[in-house]
Amino acid sequence: METQIVSRSRGWLERAKKYIEEGEVVAFHTETVYGLGANALSDEAVLKIFELKGRPADNPLIVHVHRDYDISPLIDGEPPYAAALRRAFLPGPLTMVYPSTGKVSKYVSCGLDTLAIRVPSSPTAQEFLKCVDLPIAAPSANLSKHVSPVTARHVFDDFNGKIPLILDGGACSGGIESTVLDCTGNIPQILRQGLVTQEMIASVAGDCGVYQPQRGERPRSPGMAYKHYSPRCRTAFFRENELEAAVACYEEAERAGETPCFLCESEVCAALSSFRTLDLGGTGETMARRLYDLLRKGERAATLLIGVEPREKGGVMAGVLNRMHRAFGVEHGTEET
Ligand code: TXA
Ligand code: MG
What is the CATH number of domain 234-327? Predict the structure, then answer.
């Protein structure tokens, strides 16, 4: 199969619609990362996503809908805080988990009685969803465990010859996946950190918890149990106060004939100017936008990628740090499987 990358042009969405109606999988731009979409009402189409990604069968998918799509037949009611959150943050990088009515394919939620719904804000995603007029199940458009894609080229690198079409909307402005929020309880609870932060949610809903899975417990957001976002080269990771050890690691690798490279925030890059570095930037938003592109650049340019933890921890950085820890294989509260 030939894989075509198409950007805004006559008939591009109608082509995507035709593939979706035939049960094919189409990749599309969103403001967070690119998605690998299929008709959420079709068992065969949804199973194709799992097969293409090599995704474990117990890791549920998010359903994407157009902003005017009526989600009430898909969900079994919503608490008042969820309606307020939808008004405040959608369309945007917030996925909301509701009790499911079971109307979409049973393979979407992998046996859970809940359904994750997202209304992406990117014009490409909105136009695509409007044109198909269906709920679209879509994980990030990367092979399972690999780094999520933030350009059409990244999707192509993982799925060339496997999918017919990639809807190119340019580089993703957000850069890390949406915040996943459980809206089934009395207060909302974050299952996956993202660009809509705990503080932002609490300012609308009055309160917001962050789910911390206990050791041995099946995580409520099953995707968080897996090693994820990993570059395909050796990695090492150091805390912000371990710069000397990081430099020693770099120098030792170089003596052993390796090509090491640092991945760190701008200020640290400046202090390491005589070494190979990839610059994450200086703010949470910039680091979110650059992280996945730099992890993919790093795996091509280096044999050992050395991450240094940024100093800033609050707000958007909670999501960035979660992804960095998982990319570099640092334990992050869940057992790796
Ligand atoms: O930004 C995003 O959310 C991107 C773009 C493409 O929209 N999508 C994305 O999908 O990141 P994926 O499949 O890579 O991650 C989905 C996450 C997983 O951690 C999964 O376990 C969780 O959402 N999830 C899906 N359905 C769930 C449910 N019913 N209950 C709890 N967690 C759920
Ligand atoms: Mg993913």
Answer: 3.40.50.11030
- Cα–Cα dist 221/183, whole Å: 13
Compute the distance from residue 125 Cα to the ligand 1 centre, in Å.
Answer: 16
169 within 8 A of 16, measured Cβ to Cβ: no
For domain 4-210, which CATH number applies: 3.30.465.10, 3.90.870.10, 3.30.1340.30, 3.30.460.30? 3.90.870.10
Give the predicted TM-score (pTM) of the model: 0.95
Q: Which protein residues are within 6 Å of ligand 1, measured from CB? A: 30, 32-33, 35, 59-62, 95, 97, 109, 112, 114-116, 118, 120, 138-140, 177-178, 180, 191-192, 220-224
212 pLDDT above the threshold of 90: no
Residue having the nearest C-alpha atom to atom 15 of ligand 1: 139
Kind of pairing between the strands at 94-99 and 179-182: parallel
List, for residues 58-72, the tens digit of each pLDDT value. Answer: 999 999 999 999 999
